[in-house]
Amino acid sequence: MVDRARRSSLTSAIALAALATAYGCERPAVENTIVIGVEYDVGALLPIFEGDRDITHLLYLGLNSARWERGRVEYIIDELSLAERWAFSADSTVLTYYMKTGAEWSDGEPIDAADVVFTYELLRQPEVASPISYFWEDIDSVVAVDAGTVAFHFARRSPIMLFRSGIGIMPEHVFSNVAAEHDALASHPGVSGPGDPVVSGPFLLTDRRPGESFALVPNPFSVAGPPNIDRIVFRIIPEDATRVIELETGGVDVISPVPLAESARLSHAPGFRVAQTGQRYYEYVAWNERRYQPFSDRNVRLALSLAIDRENILRGMGIEEFASLARGPISPLFPQIDDPSVESDPFRPDSAAALLDAAGWRDSDGDGVRDRDGQPLRFVMLAQSDNQRRYDTAGIIQAQLAEIGVDVELRTYEWITFRDIVFNAKDFEAALAGWSVTLELHYLDDQFHPVDADYNITGYTSAALDSLVPAAKAADTESEAAAYWRAAAVEIARDRPFAFLWFHTEGVALSDRISDYKIDFYSVYQNLHRWTVDR
What we know:
By secondary structure, the protein is α+β, with helices and mostly antiparallel strands. It has helices at 4-19, 53-59, 113-123, 161-164, 172-175, 182-186, 189-192, 240-248, 260-267, 298-306, 310-317, 349-358, 388-402, 415-425, 445-448, 463-474, 478-495; strands spanning 33-38, 65-69, 72-76, 83-88, 94-99, 139-146, 149-154, 203-209, 213-218, 231-236, 254-258, 272-276, 281-287, 323-325, 371-372, 375-376, 378-384, 407-413, 430-436, 498-504, 507-511, 514-515, 532-533. The strands form 6 sheets. It has a 7-stranded mixed beta sheet with strand order 8-9-10-1-11-21-12. The chain has a 6-stranded mixed beta sheet with strand order 14-20-13-19-17-18. Strand 15 (371-372) and strand 16 form a beta hairpin.
């Protein structure tokens, strides 16, 4: 039950949230407030859906916390964790968490082990269609030992046990009567609006205006304690140039991301700082052999990749300082899986043309487009209309492929539509897209294995990965797993299901009013509750 004092605190917090509805998209008048300009709106904010993780982790706490330290993810107990400690069994196959006493949801209900079991059972339901349902690959069961103790039973010891047991926990009393099905959960009023969600993190989500703005205000019930800032308004500003103008004219205090071409200028502009996340992100052209049969030929994919002048694209956009040419899927974050034999694809249009000739793709009728058996080498490439860098890159690649007799029709969509076509329906021929690397060695498993994986958007298959990936997952130690992931990376680089373009950083520009932020590989908003603002 919620006592009267606690109800009073909650009422005050809700009143503060309601006060801001008058602000709309204008700058709020509350002094201890910051405004953040972001590229996209948030979607269905539930941990099991994995979307908008930077925001979700501030709403739904997990049993442990994680940070990027000393070149790797380290798991810890801190104010953002629901557990006070964990312990492994003698054979390291059972991971037991001992939860903090007195932890409560934002409606005053207690948080206990039953919520953990409920979340993980929901995660595994096929109709929920969670992109992280694979977490159960190594878990035998999740058991509530008592109200404050929960045990994860794994099939074997593994270096990713803390990762797999660390997702945000959902309130059973809110969702137990909701059908265990994706659309039912996503359309719950506390998930997609108009209601405010019941959460455990330091912030409450409120004043949500789809496509315009939303706000975070303190959660008086959170075990994490009160945040330093009374109100954080997120304004949705898709256009790169508009976000920069809003920052420079004082309409917002922070923009994320900063257009890479503006990062250097803003970092030297008075009144601002630019923090870089590091090269966690990469961009690529996906060749979907499910929809366009010629992409099933590895030499065709190689030819298309060799026809792309990556260095000149980066130089022409003025962003070479913030990117490095991709060497297949090998992330600069993980030197332990680096193989020096893998190099970035050079710009060799003559070699590209020769490969297509050898594969039977020649311009037999003199129309400037290669063909084979009466079929022209012609396909549609999708790109984002609301991401200027990707939009421009797609146009340049279209022109470069035309130079070797490949006819590309470019179609562009705003992010939400692009995401649905490419990542959900997988209904495309080629697509210029980007990806954020999971901060664990198994990130290669996200997009390339198995063929029916949620994010395997090209239908890529590999007999080598069919043996390497299970071996990596079964490894007892990270160093043992790294050897298998290294071999998998080499295989993917050789097969080129993507034309890997470059890894790049993301910049976050902040007014010098903002202090105490921690922005790195792990997350932009990982310690948002500890940011401070000069008044």
